[in-house]
Amino acid sequence: MKALADEIIKGRRLTREDDLSVFLEADLDSLCEGADSIRQALCGDRVDLCSIINGRGGRCSENCKFCAQSAHHHTNCEEYGFLDQDSLLEGCAHAWKNGVDRYSIVTAGRTMEGEDLEKALEAYEAMHQEYPDIQLCASHGLMKEEDLKRLVQAGVTMYHANVETARRYFPEICTTHTYEDKLSEIRKAKNAGLHICSGGILGMGETWQDRIDMAVELSELEVSSIPLNFLIPIPGTPLEGVTPLKPEEILRIVAIFRYLNPDTDIRVAAGRNYFSDGGEALFKAGANATITGDMLTTVGNNTAQDRAMLTKLGFQIKKERKDESEQ
Known about the structure:
Helix content: 25-40%
Structural class: alpha/beta
Shape: globular
Radius of gyration: 19 Å
Distance between the termini: 45 Å
Number of strands: 9
Strand order of the largest sheet: 5-4-3-2-1-9-8-7-6
Number of helices: 11
Strand content: 5-15%
């Protein structure tokens, strides 16, 4: 795999026309070493940290099988309307002080519009004004392009719209919207001037070929960030009985996504708890970004743990700010 990694570092890019079965046959250690060398050469040692706040919880009209917040499932998740601006600003301040690179508001529901949209825009404007050096990311479903442009005007730089899985497998996971709806949203967000954060959830019953197809699709879409979640089966969802992926499978997935998206942020998200050490090996298999702190409905490492782990591994991370006098 070293030879292939060297070719990628020198400029080769793999496509659907290549024989990608090599990734499934390769020795895992060799595969991860190659992926790590690509990450070092093309992305450097900087790790991008993102913190998420769930800005509106539960009662989602969509029927995504993995999600605790869908109204179609019975998970007893907390339900609440759009958070007040003070709560959102408090979360942003906490992320800023902890040296987090970007702060993302995520809302349950098919879209964001009306009064909630106006509240969100006001919150983004306030956060951008008070903490201009933290990047703002939004995740509000299938929005109109004119509303996406308003997000840009409010200070948002990145839009999150997961493809979730491969095109072939998507209808097995969700039927209330389509894979093409996802691609359309990504195109609209790009047209609005936003960078794109798009990945999905692995371990939902898809095949290895589906995983490769998903990685290739994201390469073709030229997204800036690929969050990789590894399914944590949630009681009350249709996927509650799915057997979780093994750590070895997760490492192979991360490495594959690095080979196929060599200069993109590969962002490990939910599922790091499958590694007893918080997932150190993931950052030696091609990952160079992560979600840190409290997750949406599952808990990952807190930021202090992540900072200690990444520093030990030799990565560079943004400095902490202990008080606002350092702003």
